[in-house]
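ok so for the tutorial part 2 we go from a plain amino acid sequence to predicted structure tokens. step 1 is just haveing the sequence, like this:
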Amino acid sequence: MARKSGSDGKKTAQVLRAAATRLFAQYGYAAVSMRQIAAEVGVQAGALYLYTPDKQTLLFQIMDRHMDDLLTAWQGESADSPADPMARLEQFVRFHIRFHLQRVDGVFIAYMELRNLSKENFAVIEAKRRQYERLLEAILQDGSAAGRFELCDSKLSSYAIIAMLTGVTTWYRDDGRLSVEKIEEIYLCMVRGLVMQGSAKTGS
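step 2 — the prediction. this is what the tokens look like for a chain of 204 residues:
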């Protein structure tokens, strides 16, 4: 099916990714066909191949865009980061929760569908995930060097904190009893306890 005259190819590609994201999140990558995605978009199946060569590439595009958006958003957020490691950690916590709660389907796919990526595509996404994890690890290392944090291992601590924060997306509901702001405060309390626990024990 040829592209309709006057149609916006870039916009159609965005609609395609959004539809695939919804379907992959709801049914799982393996269970969704290109024909289902085409029906969701409202085009014939053959038209999808104007925008993506196959379903694997589409999955990769969704994950890659998610990671690029995450890294770009943090770059903007951290442009005016405070010097104090604790303040920077609090900034990271708030950012991570807000960013991910706005993209619940994308987060689910980014974590649950990694196993369905080809080896080459997995390597690209994994590298970007590590890049993001190192941002938090650097904050934790700065806090340790300044005597503000006491951690057994900064790398493992960064993994644990990110996993804990991302877990919000599995249970948060817009009509729940806690606002996003209250959730941020609760998680900040838990993260502070994690990074300062050792210091509190030693009396520093």
